[in-house]
Amino acid sequence: CEDGNVPMTVAHTCSAIFDQLPVDTKTLRVRIIGGGAGFVRSVPPGIGCTSDCSAAFATNTTVELFAREDDDSVFVEWGGDCALGGAARSTTVTLDNDKTCTATMQLGGG
Prior knowledge:
110 residues; mainly beta; four-stranded antiparallel sheet; rod-shaped
C-alpha cells in the first residue's frame, strides 16, 4: 500500500490520509458611512456589522447584502463595488476579486 499500488491477488488493508486543499478566497469589506447608523448582513453568512467589517468567501461566490437603518437614520444608497445596487435595501456582489462596498446611512429617520 505504501507506494499507492495495491495488487489484488490477496486481501489487503490500507489506509490513506487526505489533506484538504486550500480554498481560493476573496475578501468582501463592508463600511457603513454617512453619519447615520444601521446594520448590514450577508447571505451566505459572514458579514454582520454596524460599522466596518470583512469576511472571506470562496472565489466567485455571489454575496447578497441587506441594509437596515436604525430608527433615527435613513438608508441612502450602496457605493463602491456595490454602487449598482443604488437605493435598494439589498444588493449582490460577485467576488471574482477582493471587493469593498459602502452602505450610506444618514441621520433623519422617524
